[in-house]
Amino acid sequence: VLPPADDAVRVRVDPGALGVMLGTVVRQAAAASPMGAEVRVDVRPLASRVIVAVADEGPGCARRDLPALL
Length: 70
Hints:
single chain; 2 strands
């Protein structure tokens, strides 16, 4: 856990739901990546929202399959 950045943004979330969602996405990214590969999580503000992006080194998935991931 890192200390808050100078440009930190506060958001209201259900911590349990957020934990499940992030855990699911990060586990899927790790499972799709080669052994020892990096899984990156980036969080940044966008207006009144927060964007969370997860990137891995796996083969990716078709855009049409994205809704089924969550």
